[in-house]
Amino acid sequence: LTLHPLFDATDETPTPELMLKIQSVEPDRPTRWNPQIPGDVEAIVLKCLSKDREQRYRSARELTEDLVRWQQGEPVTAARTTLR
After folding, report:
1. Is 54 helix (H, G, I), strand (E, B) or coil?
2. How far is the C-alpha of 73 from the C-alpha of 40, rounded, in Å?
3. What region, left, alpha or beta, does residue 9 occupy, with left being phi > 0 and alpha being psi -120 to 50 degrees?
């Protein structure tokens, strides 16, 4: 979606450093790198990447169902993030 690797990872990024970032750093919003990404798609991506397993999709089926809802122009279950 963004043509930009998560956490600015490169082939030279040491694996332990990348694993630490994956566990402790929130990923950039996809629209930071591609403002044309629809808000619902960004919400779906961020739900997939949530650090809290309770906030992620429970299964690939749930993810698929949300993607189908988005494709059909229906509301998705992933909540858009807002500035606090």
Report:
1. helix
2. 10
3. beta
